[in-house]
Specification:
Shape of chain A: globular
CATH class of one domain in chain A: Alpha Beta
Number of strands of chain A: 19
CATH architecture of one domain in chain A: 2-Layer Sandwich
Number of helices of chain A: 19
Oligomer: homodimer
CATH topology of one domain in chain A: Uridine Diphospho-n-acetylenolpyruvylglucosamine Reductase, domain 3
Chain lengths: ~550, ~550
Amino acid sequence: MSARWWGWGPEGSATAELPEAAHGLLRKRLGVGPRHTPPVALEEVKLPEIALGDNPLVRLREIVGEEHVRDDRLARVSHAVGKSYPDLVRIRSGDGSGAPDAVVYPEDRAQVAALLELCSSEGIAVVPFGGGTSVVGGVEALRGGLGSAITLDLSRMDALVDTDRTSLMATFQPGVTGPRAETRLASRGLTLGHFPQSFEFATIGGYVATRSAGQASTGYGRIDELVLGLRCATPAGELEVKPFPASAAGPSLRELVVGSEGVLGVITEATLAVRPLPRARRYEGWSFRSFGEGCEAFRAMEQEGASPDVARLSDESETALSMTLASSGSAAERAGKAYLRLRGHEQGCIAIVGFEGEEDAIERRRSQTRGVLRNAGGLALGERPGRSWLRNRYGGPYLRDALLDYGVMAETLETATSWTNLANLYSAVGGALRDSLSERGTPPLVMCHVSHLYPSGASLYYTFIAAQQEGAEIDQWRAAKTAATDAIVANGGTITHHHAVGHDHARWMRAEVGELGVELLRAAKERLDPRGIMNPGKLLPDPGLRS
Amino acid sequence: MSARWWGWGPEGSATAELPEAAHGLLRKRLGVGPRHTPPVALEEVKLPEIALGDNPLVRLREIVGEEHVRDDRLARVSHAVGKSYPDLVRIRSGDGSGAPDAVVYPEDRAQVAALLELCSSEGIAVVPFGGGTSVVGGVEALRGGLGSAITLDLSRMDALVDTDRTSLMATFQPGVTGPRAETRLASRGLTLGHFPQSFEFATIGGYVATRSAGQASTGYGRIDELVLGLRCATPAGELEVKPFPASAAGPSLRELVVGSEGVLGVITEATLAVRPLPRARRYEGWSFRSFGEGCEAFRAMEQEGASPDVARLSDESETALSMTLASSGSAAERAGKAYLRLRGHEQGCIAIVGFEGEEDAIERRRSQTRGVLRNAGGLALGERPGRSWLRNRYGGPYLRDALLDYGVMAETLETATSWTNLANLYSAVGGALRDSLSERGTPPLVMCHVSHLYPSGASLYYTFIAAQQEGAEIDQWRAAKTAATDAIVANGGTITHHHAVGHDHARWMRAEVGELGVELLRAAKERLDPRGIMNPGKLLPDPGLRS
């Protein structure tokens, strides 16, 4: 299943509706009235001329079979962009300039190797494509100075190759989507436990190539912690990393492929750590008087080894918005609010705390967690908020389509830093977003949550919405993005905790890893991809650009 | 404190004595009678002519100061080898061919950078040296085709630079030894929790450069899991990895420096995750009817999240040997043996299970662990075996010196694999050691333990002793080492779980990471160290050698 070309959700499904309460909120907070700004029709999307000669096309078809090379309009448009806000703004307006010349669907490792060999000798750019859910410009078919580009859509390579129940490992082809991985594993009593917001469409290969972190990564671990072994097809041959539980045999080449975003090669197989399928789940809500109090509680919980599998704390602004949107005005709701007021939590922050596993293990862990959170000022709100969060966990991108229809910018970005620096970074990035958008006359609503905990620090995830600047949507976005990322770099955050680099973050890579770090990555690329065909324009900054 | 030039233990201290029971055992099992084979005197060690010209010597002295460049006999001999069995055989016999031309002691990052610049322009090989405890030929001053070599002894760079109690991080200079790190941290209520057998002499920089795993790594994590940030001085400049808790900004350069064994540069600073100093410790013994039963118990414990901080299971052979050596013939001992016999454990395996932390947390964890181990057939033996293990945890290398004096070969090697493959690898490597040494007329005693647990697998650590083949000690060792490592490679193990690659394992690197993997490491090296001055002959296989 792939997402529709102009937004989220399966092709042909109905678009999400904004909740009733949203209309008033948008008007009141952003000054936005009902506007209807739908995407153009597929036929109106402007596509570049196909620049692949007949000879390469014939040879591509020889490798994968006639029907697995597509250059029709829908295929090209569907692979022209990922799912970032600027991607959707552009494609909805009919800008298909990021489309590849053709989309090629290999079936196995041998076909991928043959395709890379052909493209290397012909100088054709190759863009690996899993679920196409990149929000950082990771799948646009940039040419990087080459004459043509193909997208390698890995959706046919969707097998669960092997499972080892004894060692809790599973080997996947790269095109397996989140739901397919979980369904196939569940039939063997296993789970990967990786649930990014893009879960419905994203793939195993994409997870690994972008260092993805799922919503339950506090418990199950980030994807980089789950990868044991992998195979990566490169123009210089196959790189194989064996799935040892640990090794001291030199630098970790696994960690060089994980996060390589298609610029070194195509991940064709990944062996991941899996877990027994949880028999029970318990998700519950907590309230804290302030974001600062909640952060301290989460720090104590994490550092005492008392963290749940999902731990998520919304700041005051995100809490207020979600309460407004979920408001039904019922008597129960009024009673709940009165209770919070009574306890001094009426301007507070909601946290979600979720456990998965065996009943008794959950109870044992939960009792420890509750002790820490109570000591830190938390107020237990029961399972209702937890269930509600679970129900809506993949809902954000659907709502974004509805907001775009309405003329509203809706974007997210994220970072991570030490606990010591968390409050500083939190206010610096929020301030940068508010200032940069207010300066353009579109003051935003900025919300934030903490959702991934480590003993040394945590992530910060921002959502911001503002009235779109008609005719200058991309400039408006770039101003906010630049201000936020500059603030991240200046205030000790990583430029990305789990969205990856893609094209959008590449200009900050020098700030992140230094000039020599960039050169080191370039040296690896030159060895594996001497012609520079692999996903040009992503991850590595333009050699001419100084950030 | 550095170890004596010909063995383990502080310079000037008395050599360990073999336990009384060892004499009979060596005679009975290895056919070895008392022999006295002491090291030659320091004056008899043959050293290569100093090949550093006057001009470079003058410039080295300008950088670090007159008294911090040493080319006297003791300094050169003490830096000629590490502490592997073949290292000690060679140095004890007077072979000082691995000595550097001079030993240089920099004080800070600026001096290291200046030294690398000088050596790069003059074509002088540079060997970084922490505690000198390498057991894989990691610190020998090979020239790699260059005319001369200096050893960079980092013992003056021994500061705890900074601690962050809130984020549980500490930043060290590379020359801080294990005891110094723990003492300095303890005064701030913290611990690193990293206790390799080389703890007394090994350094933070060495831990990081070799992907070390301490005895408590099941609980505290391997060093590669503890490194957050670092600085590495290379001939091409400084590489800095910022200590973010997690990041998705491309491949992990941190993981390229961790385990780089000095061939890319010198680690000049490392920021590591630390923990609150444990207030309590509880170490206890368990018995299993067989190694197989114990392995299954450990697997269940690890996969249920019930592992202690130290988990160590000896096979039948190691158990029998340690019981013989510890035997006092007391009534209590006889009663203990009778109890084991009664429960069917008389040929069993001993495990050590250790917990550290707050009293209540230990009790909570311990109760879960005990449940799992009992269900899996384990028999609790109380705290006595645990205390005894703790007392002797750093004792192995001292005993080796006594065995060398006695004409006995004593060597260790290690690997790791999946739980599924553990029994297969265990017998393959043991068989290779027995066969290769028996063929030479010196049948060995081979012992093994599991000491690092992961959800997907575990490590295997072998100790073997045999009568030395007089006059062919190195050939004998090489035969055993080659047979064992070939068996590891053929049977799905990593060539090293925590001893690193050095010179001794380099020829198996192609088997470990593939030809393309080696080329990728070489590309990184060429970019950072274009003249090839950094620790030549280590980690990377000789380009001409196919394994």
